[in-house]
Amino acid sequence: MKILYFAWVREAVGKSEEDLNLPEGVASVSDLVTWLKQQDTGYETAFVDNAVVRVAVNQEYVNLDHRISNGDEIAFFPPVTGGSYYDPCSSCRF
Amino acid sequence: MIRVQAVDFDLGDELKKMTDGNTGIGGLCSFVGLVRDMANDERISAMTLEHYPGMTEKALADIEKQAHTRWNLDETLIIHRYGRLEPGEQIVLVAAASAHRGAAFEACHFLIDWLKTKAPFWKLEDTPGGCKWVDARTSDDEAETRWNKPD
Looking at the domain B2-37+53-120, which fold is it? Predict the structure, then answer.
């Protein structure tokens, strides 16, 4: 399966994508996150609070309990901000 | 129509193309988003929009489809830029054309509101204090502090 990382998740992990064989015992997105966190401190940093990271499988938003398989494209990223046009903290407040 | 691109767009040209040859259109409503020069009392010299190629187009196509389901529209257009943009530059255009103004206004508003929560774009702001990722409002304080890092 292919795993993609975006924005600060990408910076924490230290790569934008990687190919991986589904590790043994990993059946859901949540399992994958737990497994990744055991591999490297970069993942630990990225997933320190799962509630902050969003996930898409095959380019559709899913929850952490979503089942995954080897052919999947899995993406981890922060909550989207590109369109937060009414956010007072944003520079593109229209 | 959906377009995700680095290059700028010409508003007049884009709107003209939407209505050319269709005299059944009675109203065309458009919204253009621009890069502001301030955020949180800090001056922004530029911002970089990162996106998820493939999913972005899929997400935009999905919302366009939803707009057509809800309103009777002749044409819709969403153009979203990515890459490095400076204050004053155009970021996004949404437009909706219909026989009547009501549907055009509502669909246009719907399209831009949806973008802010669903389209996979992330903003990196370049300020005098360094580069920082813009946090969504749902982020917690800890995450904001951790990732608002000087570059």
Answer: Aldehyde Oxidoreductase; domain 3 (3.90.1170)
Query: What's the token pair of residue A24?
Result: 């043994």
ipTM over 0.95: no
Token representation of residue B41: 């009392």
Which chain A residues have a beta carbon less than 8 Å from that of B37? Answer: 91
Q: Which of A54, A77, A81, A94 to probe the B interface (max B CBs under 10 A)?
A: A81
- Measured distance between the N- and C-terminal CA atoms of chain B, rounded to whole angstroms: 37
CB contact under 8 A, B134 and A4: no
- A positions 59-78 inside 8 Å of B (CB): 59-61, 75, 77-78
Q: Which amino acid is at B56?
A: T
Q: Indicate whether A16 belongs to any domain.
A: yes
Burial of B87 (0-12, 13-18, 19+ CB in 10 A): middle
pTM of the model: 0.83
Q: How many CB atoms lie within 10 A of CB A41?
A: 10
- Test B137 with A56 for CB contact under 8 angstroms: no
Tell me the pLDDT tens digit for each residue of B4-32: 999 999 999 999 999 999 999 999 999 99
Residue A85 maps to a domain:
no
The phi and psi torsions of B69 (rounded to 5 degrees) equal -75, -40
